[in-house]
Amino acid sequence: KQHFSSSIHVASPTSNATSESADIDWDNLGFGFMPTDYMYVMKCSQGENFSEGQLLRFGNIELNPSAGILNYGQGLFEGLKAYRKHDRNILLFRPEENAMRLRMGAERMCMPSPTVEQFVEAVRETVLANEKWIPPPGKGSMYIRPLLMGSGAVLGLAPAPEYTFLIYVSPVGNYFKEGLAPINLVVETEMHRATPGGTGGVKTIGNYAAEGAFCVRRSKKWLLIHCESAEYGDSCSSFRSVRIAEISLGPSARLWLVLKAQSAAKAKGYSDVLYLDSVHKRFLEEVSSCNVFVVKGNVISTPAIKGTILPGITRKSIIDVARSQGFQVEERMVPVEELLDADEVFCTGTAVVISPVGSITYIGKRVSYGSSGVGLVSQQLYSALTRLQMGLTEDTMDWILEL
Ligand code: COI
């Protein structure tokens, strides 16, 4: 059986329930990890159901080196946010949607998963126990990161014998260093994020690994650097902690470059990469960490969910918000050429919320949108969504859970 290190103490779920704010610089939050007080942990064996979890002091976890998650990537994650309202109440945005998506992913990854009720209750307890880390209204949000992993030991390829559901939280501000200013994307024409039949449509941990790793060339070797503490846009020298593995530069070196897509783009000054489908190499898929929308007149188009892109909860919400505001929303295959004469492009995701796109570069050709900053449609949808999430407008969709 796996266990957690002895430095972690079982905590009383209410021991930290204080409405005092943590003493941090709320005006300068980015999207970096900041440890908080408690994490939630629940375990079960293969073939069983999750039954009871507990809040533990936040800290490192101990895993058998043979754990399924470490060896075969049997793991999923989720992301959702809690907002502090002006009346000091706490709001969660559609947590049951995350619970259902986790359950769907768990089925694909042969893992047991918490019920929707267990998931939402665990999120609620974790947020309340860490309440002082929720940014004041207008200063950001608390990012909630649920993980589901095969924590039991396996050697041959098989589902792990034991599973851990864990939630930790961290106060966050804007995801992109640009803040709400438009970001600049580059269309990735050689590397692909997902393939039909793969796991691109579920939130597996492995889908994202390539996007957070950096490859640099040092003398005649390539170094694959995993950054444990990097902000977007940081240079390698500013990482607080790196783990380095050497790989030889052989004939298949170009394949390794898939690990480099995002960092290569950043090195050239782009904010992120926009992926195309791997079959036709022509249709939009998603950006490394978010879904994408293209606006032309009153029509807003976004790639259809067909197994290779993530069914984003912000994506789904924006589709409903846009339709309720009179836009025609089309979920379909969107050819990359449509970027060339779009009025606006924006990205959606829990972490990024809505991020307007200022330019997209496709095979050396740069198209700009919204000459004077954020496009009107992006601004209108951003405002409608965030006002709802922060409790500033009436929740007519019944999307908000007030704690
Ligand atoms: C989120 O938006 O919550 C995600 O999970 C994307 C992640 C890369 C930050």
TrEMBL record:
GO biological process assignments: amino acid biosynthetic process; branched-chain amino acid biosynthetic process
Cofactor(s) listed in the protein's UniProt record: pyridoxal 5'-phosphate
Swiss-Prot/TrEMBL catalytic activity: L-leucine + 2-oxoglutarate = 4-methyl-2-oxopentanoate + L-glutamate; L-isoleucine + 2-oxoglutarate = (S)-3-methyl-2-oxopentanoate + L-glutamate; L-valine + 2-oxoglutarate = 3-methyl-2-oxobutanoate + L-glutamate
Domain of life per record: Eukaryota
Keyword annotations: Amino-acid biosynthesis, Aminotransferase, Branched-chain amino acid biosynthesis, Pyridoxal phosphate, Transferase
CDD domains with a match to the protein in the record: BCAT_beta_family
Enzyme Commission code: 2.6.1.42
InterPro entries: Aminotrans_IV, Aminotrans_IV_CS, Aminotransferase-like, B_amino_transII, BCAT-like_C, BCAT-like_N, BCAT_family
Matching Pfam families: Aminotran_4
A molecular function GO annotation: branched-chain-amino-acid transaminase activity
GO cellular component, one term: chloroplast
Family stated for the protein in its record: Belongs to the class-IV pyridoxal-phosphate-dependent aminotransferase family.
Protein name (Swiss-Prot/TrEMBL): Branched-chain-amino-acid aminotransferase
Lineage of source species: Eukaryota, Viridiplantae, Streptophyta, Embryophyta, Tracheophyta
